[in-house]
Fold each of these.
Amino acid sequence: MAAATSITLNDVKRAHSAIREHINLSPCSASPRLSARSDCQLHLKMENLQRTGAYKDRGAMNAALGLPQPFKFE
């Protein structure tokens, strides 16, 4: 079993800074139907607007940008 890793706010900020020019900004959209059914305000993050159609672009890009120099993604 892999050891647990703690992710800090600085880790998230560093990743955001590294990947921001490589990913699309995903808007949030209000969902009146789901909001009514759940009796609260729900918004959906439109990750389907990423190039791959999923949220996975962020993690993959961050991993690729963290590769050693000979494998550097640009």
Amino acid sequence: MFVDKFGKVAMSIWNLSPDVAMHHMLIALRPGPFANSLCMQPVASLDELRRRAAKFMQLEAMIEFKN
């Protein structure tokens, strides 16, 4: 998943500012419900971003299962 890959790259950069990491993460997201929700209700931390991403992944899995 994108968030996991981004997290690994971000962790490999020494002294990376969380604000810079979050900015680049949001720019790299494809348009869709998750990106839209982040624009409407920005997150305060990368941990909150991971939690919200996990919720959207669960929602997508549930929708796929029902179809």
Amino acid sequence: MIYVVGLGPGDPGSISRSAWELLTKPNVTVVLRTSRHGTVAALREAGVNFSTCDALYTRESDFAAVYRRIADTVLALPGEVVYAVPGSPLVAEATVPLIRRGAEACARSIRILPAISSLEAVCGELELDPTRGLVALDALEDSLSLNPQWGTLITQVFDRFTASELKLKLLLVYPPEHCVSVVRAAGQAAAVRVDVALAELDHREFTHEDTVYIPPCQDAHHLGSAMEAFARLMDILQGEQGCPWDREQTHLSLRPYLIEEAYEVLEAIDNDDSEALAEELGDLLLQVVFHAHIAHRENRFDLVDCIEAISRKLIRRHPHVFDGLQVSGADEVLANWQLIKQGEREARAQEGLLAGIPKGLPALAEAYKLQHKAKQVGFDWPNIDGAWSKLWEELRELEGAIDSHKQAEIAGEAGDALFSLVNVCRFLKVEPETALREASRRFKHRFDEVARLAREQGLNPAACGLEALDKLWDEVKRRGF
């Protein structure tokens, strides 16, 4: 039988009666994970004969290896074994799950006795009620799941290096001036609490008896908190005491705003304006949250459903990241993406090889996507030569339609010519919507400069005629506009 007991926070009086009886029981093998604990002197005074695992901490390269060696050592001992750990065996004790799994594998009996952990002692020193919202984390974890709306206790801050690493992680979320507490020797007569600004957390020495507490923070830079606050804001705006205009909106009434905000995002990207891009992405996010809230009000879906759906889709469409699939590069990733999408469409029993393209796309983007989908099923020119020939053929047909003076025929042939030009762009790896937008931006910039030069020369741009404007246009191009 292996007994796993907790020694409590450090005061011998915190050891439970059951644990003490096991530790002082005759003919048992007692192993302490570490002798660096406030109860060790009391155990010696009581005549407890024990060994420790302290030496293993200097022999192994990392904590994971240390914990495995400790578990192996305990499991290898015969007879009745009492393995004692600081605090509670069920709180932040990495060796206990390893011993439990090992005991089950070799059909050995194991009993774990809960105890007071250092967390309860820290809460006592800080006068915290954990039911008000408290999370406990390990400083040695690679990433910390922080929620600044709750208080956070962080264990394993045993030296200045660990404190410095922890501080850098916390500063990604909390402001530097946020006050945090360091509690040492909680639950013992020598307990000490020090309050410092987060930026100064690592300006002091740390020991294995230290725990860091971060109080809730309303000014934190945290995605989860920001999204929750944003969602609550939308609840207020669409509530009974909110905005009458917001409450009247529907998916259809918001449609123009969604399209408008998307184009303003593109404009910010085209202008390489980071400040404007952040603002416009926020406006676009508003539309997403707005639509989700309307759907929630109609008992159809909510924002969580949207987030979970796209998360599942990203995992499903990235098997090379989440499922061990080997790929040779970006081209194979795209090919797999299309195959997965095709399978999803078949599962939904969609009809048509070119199904799945949004009807509201701009015409150039729609043409580009249609041609790309056609390529996926083999309907494509083998190289750009065929696309070029088709473009010239369509341009000649457009010339013939112009000679016929039939407007409907001219419109049809002009559309065919544009569609063929999009195909040429695709072979050239040029996204036509972006290319045309950039051309329009250059035209506007140059024409504004033409108007400015005309006014400098005392000319009225609206009345000086094509010849004068054309000369000014050439001058603007020579200047590099």
Amino acid sequence: MEPQEHTVDAKGKRLGRLASGIAHILLGKESTDFAKNKIASVRVHVENVDALDIPEQKRTTKIYDRYSGFHGGRSEETLEEVIAKKGTREALTRAVYNMLPANRLRKGRMKNLVIK
């Protein structure tokens, strides 16, 4: 079965609202044959990611943290630092990733996301 192609224009849209819409499509809830235990045959293309509308307050207050598992292994970085290092593509990728259910299907669903 051919995957359904969805093209999303990110110009002027808010980061969270765009990410939740993309996560909704990646879950397959748009299709009639939705099953929560299957990876939907959809592909989402996102264009104009650099024109996302991210407020200044969100850039400074949104914090991503990681933990390595060792004592003192917690590291934090703000959204502004993520955008400076890796660009707005990484910010959108992390937002969509965190909005998908944390199970074995998350990696496969993220492979259906193409950010240009």
